């Protein structure tokens, strides 16, 4: 059935037979926008995909403002590629500034990966060709312009890449686009007070905790609705937020069966009632709608700095789902695909990557957050964990935020700074090159503190001209990524590969995180991944490994590496 016919049928059904029973939800539904479904874009007869990166207009909350999109006003199409078939991408930049288009999750060579070195100047076009050779997956594309990634994504630039393969086609999963196979791109945004633009700032606060909004958007619409057939519904979920962790669940607690993670299908469906998702992550879930009852997809409160403010302090609906009387045709198989067992026996190299936030940035970012929003924004955490030193955790949390505003940034108001007991007591801090405390106080008193280099890996902020290491093609490596030393969530992403998670923050990965992934959770502990690169990346087109909290990435928590 075509989407258009289906929608006609849905409307007819809604009007004719549902009114008495559903009158209340229908009234609400009338004012609720329909879920915008990104257009499926397949290569043309010459195997070409044309993308125009452009400015457009979007209407939110009664205001019309400038937004950015690929081939449209906001977000972009879902580009569908077949495994083993070469595709030619023609990317035209019609923005007022340079951008890049990165194929997040695709195992392609550094030359076509679209990292920060692949700049497309305004008015210029870039052509790249590659042949996807990886299992069916929901990936995405977005800008990777260094120092501007957070801004450009916030303006609206993000699209999906769906990889098809023969094997997944045999599973009879729901695959009618926009009917029972539905993309769900979740993002938070904030508009300026006059509603004229998206209110984005890369400042000391967002460099520390990430940029966050006060409105949740689903495919660019606020709490939209979607009518679906009864049976198995497939949602392709993307956390497209700059910095916000989501915690997805259904309003009536019906289970979600996770069938795929970042890099494709799992070995078998994993039944979950709650699904945490970090920025950049994708999961595909199947939900049973055969009871015909309406429900919401919603995100629960998370314990993350800055992300606890209204309306995120309680379950927030992001999509209203209304099953109709027509039946869906997809199924939920018991088994999905073969996932090889993980083995570290072939590991030839082990690398340790220490993610670091400059304590000055950490501390001053927290100060700024407290000053602006009070401790409701602190996610139950205290200043003590962020450089406030002698102030006991419970005491610092009690300081009213008007007092915090009164504190100057010279350090004199922070008697605890000299002690730094909160920091020095943390494992992983010693010998990690954070600089001594005298140095820190020096920085604290200086107004010239540059937060643009405030986030680091192994002691250095990102340097585009200097890859950090070289890797041999086709060899398995173990990477230990440590977030010891701060309490921040770092969704760590590696380009050019799909890896396996050996451990996450010291624990074995959850079942639904044990398949192919390109983002691993690092938060206050150590995570280990098993990784291999099948394609090449030279110095001029190095691969990136970075925190996908975009403001951490933009302020240095990224490294380049080559594969030869
Ligand atoms: Cu980070």
User: Major sheet, described briefly?
Assistant: 6 strands, mixed
Helix/sheet category: alpha+beta
| Beta-strand residue percentage | 25-35%
Low-confidence stretches: 12-24, 388-446
Mean pLDDT metric: 87
* Helix percent band: 10-25%
Overall shape:
globular
Under CATH at level 1, the class of the domain at 349-354 and 457-563 stands as Mainly Beta
CATH architecture annotation of the domain at 349-354 and 457-563: Sandwich
In DSSP terms (H or I, runs of 4 or more residues), the helix count works out at 11
At the fold tier of CATH, the topology name of the domain at 349-354 and 457-563 is Immunoglobulin-like
Major β-sheet strand ordering:
11-10-13-18-15-16
In total, the number of strands is 30
Radius of gyration (Å): 23 Å
How far from one another are the termini?
48 Å
**What is the CATH superfamily of the domain at 349-354 and 457-563?**
Cupredoxins -  blue copper proteins
Protein model, in words:
By secondary structure, the protein is an alpha+beta fold. Helix 1 (3-17) crosses helix 2. The N and C termini lie far apart (48 Å). Copper (II) ion is lined by residues 488, 490, 547, 549, 552, 557. Copper (II) ion binds next to loops.
Summarize the structure.
The protein is α+β, with helices and mostly antiparallel strands and 564 residues long.
Which key phrases capture this entry?
564 residues, alpha+beta, Immunoglobulin-like, six-stranded mixed beta sheet, five-stranded mixed beta sheet, 11 helices, binds copper (II) ion
């Amino acid at each position: 059935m075509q989407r258009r016919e289906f929608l006609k049928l849905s409307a007819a059904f809604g009007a004719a037979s549902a009114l008495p029973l559903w009158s209340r939800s229908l009234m609400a539904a009338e004012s609720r926008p329909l879920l915008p479904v990104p257009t499926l874009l397949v290569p043309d007869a010459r195997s070409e995909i044309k993308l125009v990166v452009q400015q457009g207009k979007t209407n939110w909350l009664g205001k019309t403002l400038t937004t950015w999109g690929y081939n449209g006003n906001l977000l972009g199409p879902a580009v569908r590629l077949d495994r083993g078939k070469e595709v030619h991408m023609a990317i035209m930049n019609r923005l007022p500034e340079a951008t890049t288009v990165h194929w997040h999750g695709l195992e392609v060579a550094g030359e076509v990966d679209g990292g920060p070195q692949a700049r497309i100047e305004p008015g210029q076009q870039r052509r790249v060709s590659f042949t996807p050779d990886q299992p069916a997956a929901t990936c995405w594309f977005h800008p990777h312009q260094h120092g501007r990634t957070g801004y450009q994504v916030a303006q609206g630039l993000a699209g999906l890449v769906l990889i098809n393969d023969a094997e997944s086609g045999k599973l009879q999963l729901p695959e009618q686009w926009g009917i029972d196979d539905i993309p769900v791109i979740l993002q938070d945004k904030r508009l300026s007070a006059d509603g004229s633009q998206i209110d984005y700032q890369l400042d000391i606060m967002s460099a520390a905790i990430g940029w966050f909004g006060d409105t949740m958007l689903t495919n660019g619409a606020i709490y939209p609705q979607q009518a679906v057939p009864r049976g198995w519904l497939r949602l392709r979920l993307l956390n497209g937020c700059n910095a916000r962790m989501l915690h997805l669940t259904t309003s009536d607690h019906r289970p979600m069966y996770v069938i795929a993670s970042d890099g494709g299908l799992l070995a078998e469906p994993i039944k979950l009632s709650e699904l945490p998702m970090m920025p950049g992550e994708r999961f595909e879930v199947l939900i049973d709608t055969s009871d015909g009852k309406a429900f919401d997809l919603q995100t629960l409160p998370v314990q993350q700095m800055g992300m606890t403010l209204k309306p995120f302090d309680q379950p927030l609906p992001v999509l209203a789902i209304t099953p109709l009387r027509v039946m869906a045709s997809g199924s939920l198989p018991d088994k999905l695909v073969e996932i090889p067992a993980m083995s570290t026996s072939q590991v030839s190299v082990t690398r340790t990557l220490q993610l670091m936030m400059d304590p000055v940035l950490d501390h001053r970012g927290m100060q700024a957050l407290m000053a602006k929003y009070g401790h409701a924004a602190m996610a139950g955490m205290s200043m003590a964990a962020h450089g406030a030193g002698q102030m006991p955790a419970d005491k610092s949390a009690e300081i009213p935020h008007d007092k915090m505003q009164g504190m100057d940034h010279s350090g004199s108001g922070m008697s605890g700074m000299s002690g730094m007991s909160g920091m020095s007591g943390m494992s992983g801090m010693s010998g990690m090159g954070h600089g001594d405390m005298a140095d820190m106080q020096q920085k604290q008193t200086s107004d010239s503190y540059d937060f643009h280099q405030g986030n680091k890996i192994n002691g250095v902020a990102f340097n585009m001209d200097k890859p950090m290491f070289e890797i041999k093609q086709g060899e398995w490596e173990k990477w230990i990524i440590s977030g010891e030393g701060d309490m921040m969530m770092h969704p760590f992403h590696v380009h050019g590969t799909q890896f396996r998670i050996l451990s996450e923050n010291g624990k074995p990965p959850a079942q639904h995180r044990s398949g192919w992934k390109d983002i691993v959770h690092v938060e206050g502990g150590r995570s280990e991944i098993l990784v291999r690169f099948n394609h090449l990346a030279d110095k001029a087109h190095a691969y990136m490994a970075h925190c996908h909290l975009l403001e951490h990435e933009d302020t240095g928590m990224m490294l380049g590496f080559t594969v030869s």
